C-alpha cells in the first residue's frame, strides 16, 4: 500500500525564501572557460544588488529583477559577479554594485523590523532599490524568484564583508565563480558562511510559549530564537535559549522545518521543545514579554481574530509555520 502525498509533506518547502529552482553547477564552478561561456550566453541574466538591496526595473505598477548581462554595466561599476546556477531559461548570475553606484538619500528613524532606507541609483529613474523583506511581504515575485533573490543577497553580502583575508589581512579575490575567496599572499581559502539560528516553541500540553521584542509590530508575538553557538548541538541551543530568555526548562526537542533567512545570511532551524517547567521568568534585556498561549489562542492569532488584537508572524516567517504546525495538529 503506497503512502499518501501528505505523508511526505515538507514544511520547509512552504516557508518564505524556499523554492530555489537552480542547478547550482557546483562541479563546474572552477572551470573558468565554462563560466565565461555561461556569462556570454544570450539568455544569461543577472540579479543585481546595491549595497544589500535588490535593484529592480520599474514596469508600470510591477517590478522586474532580471537584467541582461550588458545592462548591468549601465547601472554602475560592478564589484563582484557570481554564478548562482542554471534554470530552464538559461544561466543565472548575481552582481553586487560598487557602493559608489548608489546613494542613501534617507534613513527614517523608526524602530521597526523593516528596512526603511531610501537608496537610489543616480540618473536611473527607471529602476528602484527596494528592501527584500518588504517585497516578499507584498508578494511581488513568485516563490522561485524570491528564493533566488534571497540567495543572491546572502552570497553578495558575504563578499562585501570579506574582501580581506582573515588570516593575514591581505586583499582576497573571488574564485570558483563566486563560491570561494582566495588570498594570494598566504594562500588561505575562504568560503561563504551561513549562521545557524534556532527558533522554537516550548510546549506544555495544549499551551505554547511565545514572546515579543520591542521592535515587533504592536500586538505581535512570535517564537523565541537565538544563534547556535560553537560546540552546541541544535537541541542544546534550543534548551539554552528558552532557559535564558524565559526561564523555562525543556526536555525532548523535535525538528519541524528550516528556512533560509537572508537578513543577512542565516538558516533558521525550527523546533518544538517539550517544557518540563512552566513558571516563566522573562529576560527583559532580550524580550518585552513572554507568556503561555492556548492552542485556541494560537489559532485565533493566526487567523487575525484574537479578542485582544494579538497577532502571529506573517507566512513569510518560519515562526508562522512553526506555530501553525503545532496549533493545527
Question: Keywords for this structure?
Answer:
seven-stranded mixed sheet, Nucleoside Triphosphate Pyrophosphohydrolase, alpha+beta, 18 strands, 2 domains, 329 residues
What are the secondary-structure elements, in order, as H or E? Answer: HEEEEHEEEEEHHEEEEEEHEEEHH
Just name the CATH architecture of the largest domain.
Answer: Alpha-Beta Complex
CATH class of the largest domain: Alpha Beta
Can you count the helices? 7
In brief:
This protein has 329 residues and is α+β, with helices and mostly antiparallel strands. The chain is built from seven helices and 18 strands.
Describe this structure in words.
The chain has 329 residues and is of the alpha+beta class. The chain folds into two domains: 11-161, Nucleoside Triphosphate Pyrophosphohydrolase; 195-327, Nucleoside Triphosphate Pyrophosphohydrolase. 21% of the residues lie in helices and 32% in strands. The chain is built from seven helices and 18 strands. Strands 1, 2, 3, 4, 5, 6 and 9 form a seven-stranded mixed beta sheet that branches. A hairpin with a 2-residue loop joins strand 1 and strand 2. Helix 6 (295-302) crosses helix 7. The longest helix is centred in the middle third of the chain and has 18 residues, at 143-160. The model is unreliable at 1-5 (pLDDT under 50).
Topology:
Layout: H1 32-40, E1 45-50, E2 53-59, E3 62-64, E4 67-68, H2 69-72, E5 78-87, E6 90-97, E7 103-106, E8 118-120, E9 127-129, H3 132-137, H4 143-160, E10 172-175, E11 180-183, E12 189-190, E13 195-204, E14 207-212, E15 224-227, H5 234-246, E16 250-261, E17 266-275, E18 289-294, H6 295-302, H7 318-327
Parallel strand pairs: 1-6, 13-17
Antiparallel strand pairs: 1-2, 1-4, 2-3, 2-9, 5-6, 7-8, 10-11, 11-12, 13-14, 13-15, 14-18, 16-17
